[in-house]
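Example 649, ligand zinc ion.
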Amino acid sequence: MLRAADVIAQRVRAEKRKSQPSEQQDAVRQRNKRRKEREDQGVVTKPYNLSIHGTKQEQEDFMLRLKSICTKMGETHGKRLTYRETLLQAMSAWLKSHDEENDHRLDLDCGGAGLPFRARNGFSAASPATKDEPMFLATVTAINHLSDQLQDHARSCQEQLVVKKKNGVHMQGHAGKLTLCCSAKHNVYWDSSPHFYGKFLVNYRMAHAYFTSGIRPLQYKKICDAAGMGKIVDKTLRERYQPVYSEVVEEFAEASMAQALQEETAIQVMVDGEDFAGISIMSDARHCWRKNAMFSDVAFLGDRTHRVIKLITVSQDEEQYSQNHELVGTQQFYEWADENAVNILVHAHDNNKSVNKLVENRAAQGHRCVNGNDTWHATKGIARGMKKITMGPKYKERVTWHPELSDKAGSIKTHVYWAMKNCALDPERLRGYIDNIIKHYKNDHTGCHHTSNCRISGDAYKPSKVLIQDPKAEKLLVDFLHQTVVYKNAENYVHAKDTHYVESFNNALLVYHDKRIAFGKEAYLLRINLAILDWNENVDRDHTSEWRCEDAAAPRRREPKKQLVEKKYTFRKEVWNEFMRRVYMPNLADDTVHDQAPAGNLDQPPADNHDQPPADNHDQPPADNHDQPPADNHDQPPAGSQDQAPEDA
Ligand SMILES: [Zn+2]
Ligand SMILES: [Zn+2]
């Protein structure tokens, strides 16, 4: 009733106002004009309008409440607040209280900061206040140890142990060193990782994972930093873990290559029987960077097993010019082969001139070694070279190129490839097959192979390509064929060798080796050796299915694509076992473990223990711990324990 009376009084006042001089049309217009001028000058801000739909009743109700809040909010200032100020304050207050309420509810649910721990539905729950807690790696054994410690504490004290709010967690690498405390001020120290010889197991495992994955140091750092899971700093990785790890991996790689050589020989003996005289190989070089490489690797793969039997890394210390690295590496390979009585028969490579020469020289000295240049590179060159005689500007037609040749590039490439495969190791026959291309395209098939279409079909044969009739076209094609590398060095191509395996090996190396990153020699060799282990274990592995596809980039491809089974990586497990055997039993590993403190010295942290701030060394009871009852001595490991004072991080 009172409200209705207010409204009526307001309306009366409004009616009355209309008759005042300041509300007359001219006065209002003047006022509006002045306001507009002040707005344009930037003296006052423009009003913004809020449209709220509703009935007249609702609108009045709304305004009444708004005005009432304006008045109440202004009471402390002794002046009514404006609509704008009131609405802003009301909205912010609501948002703030809403967020606080939410966080508080979540924290109450699960024991957030400043609250006792509470499980929710039998689990610990994440909340806004706890979502950024540090993570550490723990193992089953470590958890069992914690359970044991808690039980010990409970025997003499009923209070709940919780991780100390302040400095309760210290990360050492990926391991957490935790201090739990109860309201009676008992401290329990717990390490998330089992110890061995003053080292944390989880850090060794993570170092192994980092090395074996082939990821770059920076990638490892990024993952760890983003996850907040601690990390092993680069220097520690390099100085503490890498030397032993590299050594183990190198030995495994050596063993893998020795086994590959053995298998290669065994297969060749099986094929050749009494005539066995040696094995065949393929090789290729790869530079560590794109330009002026510090290291180059020359990989040697068995022709039958496709496994790496030897890999030689040539550094700039040995040979200044990286373009000579392949030759130096190949020379070293032959020195090794001679020393170990490994006879090489066909050496396939991608037509490196100096390697060709080296192999020829060895043949001249009485070795049975011959070059087998890569067929793929040779035929690729043919397709490229043919372009010059199959197309060109109009004014050079029939001079540098001829339309009668335009449709033949693909077929000639295929034919040369076929000729290499079917020449029965006879260079003259290979040249003859290539020469016959001309006759075949002149529709004279007397010299063609008995298996080819033109011979099988006999008189019914209809040439699929334009016949060569112009002597100019014939001359262009003859000249082209005679200067191809296959024709000129036919003896290097009679073996029809293919080096694509060694090229894929160099490609596979990229998983471990990023060409953009410069590694030190030890890290470089470690990554190479990991790549060898990976390759030798996985090359030619089984495939689950084959599928054929049309590839626009390779329209003449006949081979189906294979869906390979997943890689196994058994070498990882073996490397890990041996790595741990060596660090766990340093005395057994002869003098190979250089980076480790002697057994008697374990209680002293090493000098380079920069990862652990001295103040954090809670292997000693903290100073504020003197009120601890002697009976409660369960939180300090027994003195002299070998498992004390982990120093790695
Ligand atoms: Zn207690
Ligand atoms: Zn023919």
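Summary: DSSP finds 20 helices and 13 strands in the chain.
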